[in-house]
Amino acid sequence: MSKIENVPHVNATVTASGNGPAIFLSPSQKKKMELVLSSPNAPTGTSPTLTLKAQTSPDNITYTDLGGSSIQLSAAGHQRVVVTNIQANWIRSAWVIGGSASPTFTGVNSRLTGVDC
Q: What is the spatial distance between Cα 39 and Cα 111, in angstroms, rounded to a whole number?
């Protein structure tokens, strides 16, 4: 089976919310996905947060958050989560930046990878 991977951030500076590219999942690929979010540097701003989650869609138009897939950083660190039993045809990563006074995360790396695909 082919490897599924979506890497929206590589040593990036993140100052706004956004979405990664969509990935079509064949029936054999609907197993489990791993989300990873890391930032080696302390963020700036007031109460900064960076949340990464998986979103799924039956039609690549309307996306909903995949339950149990949300991970968050509010300081330098590394988080990961594995989600299973994916039923949708499409999947993408989405990130939301929160806080005030221009929250900024630098050196950000994130990915959405198929596990056992």
A: 12
Contact 97/9 with Cβ under 8 angstroms? no
- Is 11 strand, coil or helix? strand
Residues near 75 by beta carbon (within 8 Å), at least 6 away in sequence: 42, 43
- Residue segments in the chain with a per-residue pLDDT below the cut of 70: 1-2, 116-117
Query: What's the pTM?
Result: 0.90
Q: What is the pLDDT of residue 1?
A: 47
Whether residue 63 lies inside any domain: the answer is yes
Q: Looking at the DSSP assignment, which residues form a beta bridge with residue 96?
A: 51
Would 67 be classed as within a structural domain? yes
**What pLDDT is stored for residue 87 in this prediction?**
86
> Is 49 among the domain residues?
no
What is the total count of domains within the chain? 1
